[in-house]
């Protein structure tokens, strides 16, 4: 019976995020499914870290300051699935009796999503000019694959925050596997973002970015990476890496 109420709560919460303009219509529908799976199978144990991820990510995205010219667009279904799809699958695994390993995977994927978001939002504003993978040439703030000390520090803090939230809420997973998983996901995100993720250059103004259409409206030319590996695909891979790393560390300790 509790699972039913948690599921109803998840759907109501997704509706509220749509009303607030944090998610668009498709994003809210995807969030309702992700939230219902996590809350329905774990209750508050998974709901607390999920809420910590969602609220802190949204609020950090609204901090003033250098945003790389990005708008605070409502998140769409593809972004919700890229960040929460792996966690939803792990929640389904818990419902099917997967136990502690699946709980580690759930929290590890959420920690990876949180680490990436905190690193991006803080690094873009306060990280100066990041270097590609941390040691390569300097990039524009917010560029995929760019690594700064400030952004990395914020990302590790975000992963630790989810790890502690999960432990405090009674998810049944230690904080260390989740924090390590989140940090591994952050690393995977940076490495993919700086190597295999599609990168486009605008022939008109020379601007570079991860989307084919530049801010000035001209269609960019792909200069690096795989055309299908966009930002959402990288986030999905990073959350999967976070889940796998947390699962491995958790299994090693048991
Ligand atoms: Zn341009």
Strand order across the largest sheet: 4-3-5
What's the order of the H and E elements? HHHHHEEHHEEEH
The chain-level mean pLDDT equals: 92
Give the biggest beta sheet. 3 strands, antiparallel
- First CA to last CA: what distance? 31 Å
Hetero ligands: zinc ion
Rg on CA atoms, Å: 18 Å
Determine the structural class based on helices, strands and strand pairing: mainly alpha
The number of distinct helices, counting runs of at least 4 residues, comes to 8
Question: Low-confidence parts lasting 5 or more residues at pLDDT below 50?
Answer: none
Structure characterization notes:
It is built from eight helices and five strands; from the N terminus they run αααααββααβββα. The relative contact order is 0.14. By secondary structure, it is mainly alpha-helical. Bound molecules: zinc ion (ZN).
What is this structure, in a nutshell?
The chain is mostly helical. The chain is 65% helix and 5% strand. The longest helix is centred in the middle third of the chain and has 27 residues.
């Amino acid at each position: 019976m509790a699972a039913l109420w948690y599921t109803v709560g998840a759907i109501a919460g997704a509706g509220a995020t749509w009303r607030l303009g944090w998610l668009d219509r498709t994003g809210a529908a995807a969030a309702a499914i992700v939230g219902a799976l996590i809350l329905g199978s774990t209750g508050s144990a998974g709901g607390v870290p999920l809420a910590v991820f969602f609220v802190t990510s949204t609020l950090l995205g609204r901090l003033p300051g250098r945003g790389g010219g990005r708008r605070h667009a409502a998140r769409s279904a593809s972004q919700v699935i890229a960040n929460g799809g792996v966690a939803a699958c792990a929640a389904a695994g818990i419902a099917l009796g997967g136990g502690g390993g699946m709980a580690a995977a759930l929290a590890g994927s959420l920690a990876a999503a949180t680490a990436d978001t905190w690193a991006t939002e803080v690094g873009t504003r306060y990280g100066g000019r990041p270097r590609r993978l941390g040691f390569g040439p300097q990039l524009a703030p917010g560029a995929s694959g760019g690594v700064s000390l400030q952004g990395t520090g914020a990302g590790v803090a975000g992963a630790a925050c989810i790890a502690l939230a999960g432990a405090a809420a009674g998810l049944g997973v230690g904080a260390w596997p989740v924090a390590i998983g989140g940090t591994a996901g952050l690393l995977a995100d940076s490495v993919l973002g700086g190597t295999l993720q599609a990168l486009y250059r605008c022939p008109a103004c020379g601007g570079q970015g991860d989307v084919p259409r530049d801010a000035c409206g001209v269609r960019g030319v792909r200069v690096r990476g795989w055309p299908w590996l966009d930002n959402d695909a990288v986030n999905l891979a990073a959350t999967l890496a976070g889940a796998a790393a947390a699962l491995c560390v958790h299994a090693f300790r048991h």
